[in-house]
Each structure stands twice: as C-alpha cells, then as structure tokens.
Amino acid sequence: MHATIQKDIEEIIGYFKAGEKVFIVGCDNCAAKCHSGGIPETQEMANRLQKRGINVIGWCVPQPPGVSLCKLSNTKKVLQEQYGDQIKEADSFLVLACGQGFHTVLDATEGAMVHPGCDTIFGGETVSDNFITEYCSLCGECIVDFAGGLCPVTLCAKSLLNGPCGGAKDGKCEVDRNRDCGWQLIYDRLRALGRLDQMEAYMPPKRYSKWSRPRSLTLGDGEATFSSLAGSHTVVNHD
Amino acid sequence: MSKLRQALESGKFVITGEVGPPKGVDLGACLHHARELRDKVVAINVTDLQSAVMRIGSMVVCAKLVEQGLEPVYQLTCRDRNRLALQSDLLSAWAFGIKNVLCLTGDHPALGDHSDARPVYDLDSVQLLKAASTLNNGHDMAGHELEGKPDFFLGAVVTPAADPLEPQKIKMKKKIEAGARFFQTQAIYEPERFEKFMNQVQKLGVPVLAGMVLIKSPAMARFMNANVAGINVPDSIISEMEETRKEDRKKKSVEITARIIRQVKSLCQGVHIMPLGWDELVPDVIAEAELK
Questions:
Q1: What number of other Cβ atoms are within 10 A of residue B113's Cβ?
Q2: Contacts of A32 (CB under 8 A, 6+ apart)
Q3: Tens of pLDDT, residues A209-226
Q4: How large is the average pLDDT for residues B220-248?
Q5: Cis omega (within 30 of 0) on the bond before A214?
Q6: Under an 8 A CB cutoff, do B168 and A158 touch?
Q7: I need a labelling partner for A45 at 20 to 30 A (CA). Which of A125, A236, B92, B254 fits?
Q8: What are the tens digits of pLDDT across the range B92-102?
Q9: Residues 6 or more apart from A64 whose CB is under 8 A from it?
C-alpha cells in the first residue's frame, strides 16, 4: 500500500486563490486505511476548508468500496457520471491520496489544476489497523532472498549489502537509537535459519538503473514488460 | 611502494597517526599537527568529512601532506559519492601521489551538520574495496581499461568490541577478499577483549593496527560509552581520569594510552593513534609506550 499523511491545513489553504472553487477527491483504498483520504476524512476536510473561508463546491471518494483512486477508468467514470456539473464548475481539485492517485485525478479531469492534500511517505505493510511500516523500497530488483527475506536496502539506513557498518550499538542503528539495526535483524534471522553462509557471500552493487524514474509496466496476453533505464524486460507468466 | 606497505610487509611494528581537516580553507593548524608527527609515525590518516560534518576534503589535505614529504592514508567514505565519483577520486588521489586508501562506509548524514543531505551509499565499503582493487588491476568497475593504473595499498576498519562480533568478523573476511591489506580498529580500551578478537582473526593473515583514542576527561569517556558504537571505556579508566586534577589530565591521558599500547602491542602489528585535537601529546604517548 502507499502510505500517505495529510499536509498541514495551513499549507493546503495556501494553494487557493481568493474565491477559487475547489472540489475534493479522496481514495477508498490506501488513503482510507491511512485515515488521510477516506470518506470521513474527505468530508471533514471539506468542513475544515469551508470554515476557513475556502469555496468548497463538493467532494467525493470514488466507489465501489475499497477501490483505488489510481484506477483511472473508475475514477474518470465516477467523476464524469456522478459529479459532472461540479467537475465542470470547479477551478481546481484537492486530492487526499498518494501521488499516483493525485495524478489519476489530473488525468481523469483532462489536465485540470490539481493540488496535493497529502504527502506520500512510503510503500508499506499494514501491520495493524493503526500501524503501517516500510519493508520494501520499490527498487525494481528484489534481492531479499540472500538476507533471509529482510531487505537491507530498506531496513539498513545506509542500504548496505555486505553486512553492518560499525555504527550499531546494542542492536540499534546509529541514526536513531530507538530503531533496530537492519543488519542485526538480518544476522539474527539468518542465524536462526542456519543460513549465515548467505551473509558470507559477496553481494555486488545494485543496478540503480532499475530504480530510475519514471518506470512503467505494460501488460500483454500472459506477459508483462518492465521498462526502466536498465532497458525493457518482458516476462511470460505461464509455460 | 608506500612506506606503510613496506613497513607492514617487513613485519615492523607500525604507528599511524591521524589529522582531521578543518571547516574552512585555513589548513595551518591541521598541517602543523601533521608535521609534528614527522618521523614519529609511518603514515597519517586524513579523515573524510568525519562525523558527517561538512569540511574541506580529505584528498586535498592528503595532497598537501605528500607535498611536505609526509605519507597520508586517504580516508574515503561511501556516504557522499556514487561509483563514478569514488573511482574518479581514487584516480585523482593517485595522481596526487596518494598511495594508501582506507575504505569506509561513513557516518550517516543524519549525524552531521547537514542532516537533510541525501545519503549516497551507492557502494558499500566491501564494494568500494573491490572497485579500488579493480582499478589497481587496470580496469574500472564497468570493465573498461585504464590508461595507466594505480597501485593503492588498501585498508579497512573493524570494530573488535562490537556486540555481536560475528557480523564484524564475516564482513572483515569479505573486506580481505575484496582487497583490504591492513585494518585499523575502533578505539580499544579493554586489552583482554582485544586479545580474544585477535585470537579469532589472526589466522586471516592481515595486519591489524589497534585504534587508540586519547581520553580527555571522564565526561568524554562517558559520552563515548553512551553514543559511540564499539567503544567501551571501563569504569576503572573513568575513575582514574576523575581522580586526576584537570591540569594533570593530559599527562594522565598519555599514561593510560601508553599503558594500553604496551598491553596490546604483542597482539597486533601496530597502533593507530587518534588524538582528536591533543596532537601534541602523540610523541609522549609513543615514548611512554616504549615504541621507539
């Protein structure tokens, strides 16, 4: 999931010119789980902005329940078919969702002025209803197998691939003594699995060309193509 | 061949020192400290934006040392440069007559004075050693041939008092396989613990220089214990400093450091003295440790 957090209300207000007619769009998937852009938060944002003198002309969180705002076909259909008049009237849109959902609204409104209401902070695991944390950096080249399934690129503050730096103290990272040293976690796990030999093998530098942006995925019949600065790479997902 | 390499390969007990480049362009004091180490140490480490604090670069200070007939150990961290810049800086360093390189990960920018800087770490210290070894062999990391190749004597660091120690030992072995030919350690204050470490790594056959940091005050020792990984100053040493009057603390610091050196010198191939500003005391430490 894409974790998001609402921007400070003053920063959001700063986007709008006097009298600007604003329509607010939330997301019923990730932003709803993050309490940054579900139905209650989107409605509340409309109230808070109106209270501060912003001309909010409407809001919506595209349905069906649980659908992602970043699914362009659905978002476009909902906005045009259910909110057509307001969409035409709006000077701008405020999006309470991640950067992908944000851009989906830009596409769905064919290039209208869109303002971000959230900061997109990471891709994470929803560990519980009130805790989301990051285990993957979306690097484009998964290497977790050698590390017992724990990603050093994400869990180590320095993304080191060949073992810990000298900065950990009592198993905690030098950047924050409340945070676990990623390599301590990997070492403990490999030891428990009886696979410390995997820590002894040299890991070559990552191919950061696979982490170039923007990247894309194109889907065909039984195949998928990943494009990045490392080139285009097609995988057939059946025999 | 570098003097450091010659000395270590001949089996001599080696002393190295260290200077930290200043924030600014006035190199006067830094070079003065380095000159004071002339004929006392074989080589002088020059730190690379130590503690992730922005300063003048390690390479230029190393080049100045070469100009003055002193031998530097160029500390190069992975924090601020990607693989292009690291390899390029290594070639530039060789052109300046710099022959020893200590390859390090580098303190995280979050610890320094530009904490919003983007951390690089395109390579880690093992990969950097391998890249430098590849340059020594006449190629860059992409496999392209070099016009003229360097011949660096490569070193790395290890933390003997790390807990757990095993990941450090695993990484030390990887560093040797990647080209490390000497090690300098985090500061040592417990000779017994260091002896246990050396018993485990002696078989790797790579010289180890035990790190020595001069303790300036009980507060500094407590600060290091609380904040610096892999450093453990025993209470007995803290008490010794506490019981010493302020004006006698330099003398006491020399006495403690020299005593630790005497206790560890039969275990390792040399010592690396990091005076952290008390540079003028290094000659006294060497004399009192009976190293000359």
A1: 13
A2: A26, A38, A39, A41, A61, A66
A3: 999 999 999 999 999 999
A4: 94
A5: yes
A6: no
A7: A125
A8: 999 999 999 99
A9: none
Cα–Cα separations (whole angstroms), residue B126 to B78, B79, B134, B178: 10, 13, 12, 6
Interchain contact B126–A (C-beta under 8 A): yes
Terminal CA-to-CA distance of chain A, rounded, Å? 30
Kindly report the nearest CA distance between residue A135 and chain B, in angstroms: 19
Give B104 to chain A, closest Cα distance, Å. 9
Give the integer Cα–Cα distance in Å for B212 and A150: 36
Task: Note whether B166 contacts A174, CB cutoff 8 Å.
Answer: no
pLDDT digits (tens, 9 = 90+) for A25-58: 999 999 999 999 999 999 999 999 999 999 999 9
Cα-Cα end-to-end distance for chain B: 24
| DSSP class of B268 | S
| DSSP per-residue string spanning B27-57 | -HHHHHHHHHTTTT-SEEEE-SSGGG---S-
> Smallest Cβ distance to A158: which of B119, B170, B171?
B119
- Interface predicted TM-score of the whole assembly (ipTM), two decimals: 0.95
Nearest to A162 among B111, B126, B166 (CB): B126
Please report where in the chains the tokens 């200590």 appear, as a residue.
Answer: B102
Q: Where are the domains of chain A?
A: 2-123, 140-200, 209-239
How many cross-chain Cβ pairs, A to B, lie less than 8 Å apart? 90
Q: Do B167 and A205 touch (CB under 8 A)?
A: no
pLDDT bin (cut points 50, 70, 90) of residue B292 is: low
CATH class label, A2-123: alpha beta
> What are the residues of chain A with a beta carbon less than 8 Å away from any beta carbon of chain B?
157-170, 174-176, 183-184, 187, 196, 199-200, 202-205, 208
CB contact under 8 A, A205 and B107: no
Q: For residue B157, which residues of chain A lie inside 8 Å, CB to CB?
A: 166
Using CA atoms, how far apart are residues A116 and A114, in angstroms rounded to an integer? Answer: 7
Q: Do A158 and B124 touch (CB under 8 A)?
A: yes
- Identify the closest residue of chain A to B111 by CA–CA distance: A175
Of A158, A169, A203, Cβ closest to residue B105: A158
Question: Which residues partner with A60 through β-bridges?
Answer: A25
Q: CB contact, 8 Å: B162 with chain A?
A: yes
Question: Does the beta-carbon distance from B108 to A167 stay under 8 Å?
Answer: yes
Q: Domain B3-288: which CATH class?
A: alpha beta
Sequence ranges of the domains in chain B: 3-288
Distance between CA atoms of A114 and A105, rounded to whole angstroms?
A: 7
Residue of A nearest to B161 (CA): A166
Q: For chain A, which residues score pLDDT lower than 50?
A: none
Dihedral sign computed on CA atoms, order B268, B154, B107, B45: positive
